[in-house]
Amino acid sequence: MTQTIPGHELLYSGKVRGLYAPLDPQTGERDGSRLLLVASDRVSAYDHVLDTPVPDKGAVLTQLSLWWFDQLADLAPHHVLSTDVPEQVAGRGVYVRRLMMLPVECVARAYLTGGGLGEYAATGAVSGVPLPPGLVDGSRLPEPVFTPSTKAPVGEHDEPISLEQVVELVGPRLAHRLRDLTVAILARGNEIAAARGILIADTKVEFGIDPASVPVDDAGAPCWAEIDPDAVQVTLADEVLTPDSSRFWRAADWEPGRAQTSYDKQVLRDWLTSAASGWDRASDAPPPTLPPEVVDLTRARYVEAYEALTGTTFAPRT
Fold it and tell me: How is domain 8-98 classified at the CATH fold level?
């Protein structure tokens, strides 16, 4: 359920996050430079927002993203301006820069699983990137690969695309910068996480650009191909390397050829596709309510990942 936050106007409510514009207390006008980004406890799976929240999930994702932004600061600037937010969203809200978001879901894979595994089984490649023969579920790839997808509206499916298709969307200079940044973020993430007992199989990141730096055509559409990423700052936005945007595996249990022990929402994905849920993913029916034990296990895995990575105890704000 979307919150009302005094002094702020709701601009957008996504699968798990809300975006609010701070309002000038005298004029009521929107602040043109920043937004309040609030992570909820809602959870999505298979392009559905489930009706069962996972307690403290929003706070875990926000606090973990803040930690990762610091670890990645030399690779890419981030969008966070301040964590001094209204008390009712403390711990899960941040003030961020207003950005024009690039129209690509930037995905990188270090291990083969999920949709990438299915694509590989059918074609021997993922997003047009040929991979060696004989790989199985959980295989480590020779090097991380960029496997982007479309940005589909809520309720629709993201579709894998090739680097060449990203070039068509944003031009070659931005496309190659997005690829290089995404792969570098996953590689850095695995350098850090592996020392803490976690493997990051894959991750999704998003990038934006200051709207004042984005040229537009006569219809107001952004001309991405005209942007020089060496002259214009490409900013890391939304969340980064969290259990919602990445697959986290327990390194000690890693064994290619089977499902891995995960720290992410794979727990609830597995239940949804099991006989126990009674749900047919191919149907138009919404997913069923999660049982308490699945919710509790999902929360525990999120918290465990946060604590293993950061080395600090998770303390939810009440």
Answer: Phosphorylase Kinase; domain 1 (3.30.200)
Answer yes or no: is pLDDT of 14 > 90. Answer: no
Q: Which CATH number fits domain 101-250: 3.40.50.720, 3.40.50.2000, 3.30.420.100, 3.30.470.20?
A: 3.30.470.20
Task: Give the percent of the chain with pLDDT over 90.
Answer: 86
Write out the chain in H/E/C secondary structure.
CCCCCCCEEEEEECCCEEEEEEECCCCCCECCCEEEEEECCCCEECCEECCCCCCCHHHHHHHHHHHHHHHCCCCCCECEEECCCCHHHCCCEEEEECCEECCCEEEEEEECCHHHHHHHHHHCEECCEECCCCCCCCCEEEEEEECCECCCCCCCCCCECCHHHHHHHHCHHHHHHHHHHHHHHHHHHHHHHHCCCEEEEEEEEEEEECHHHCCECCCCCECHHHCCCCCCCCEEECCCCCCCCEEEEEHHHCCCCCCCCECCCHHHHHHHCCCCCCCCCCCCCCCCCCCHHHHHHHHHHHHHHHHHHHCCCCCCCC
Tell me the pLDDT tens digit for each residue of 230-263: 999 999 999 999 988 999 999 999 999 998 998 8
Please tell me the pTM assigned to this model.
Answer: 0.93
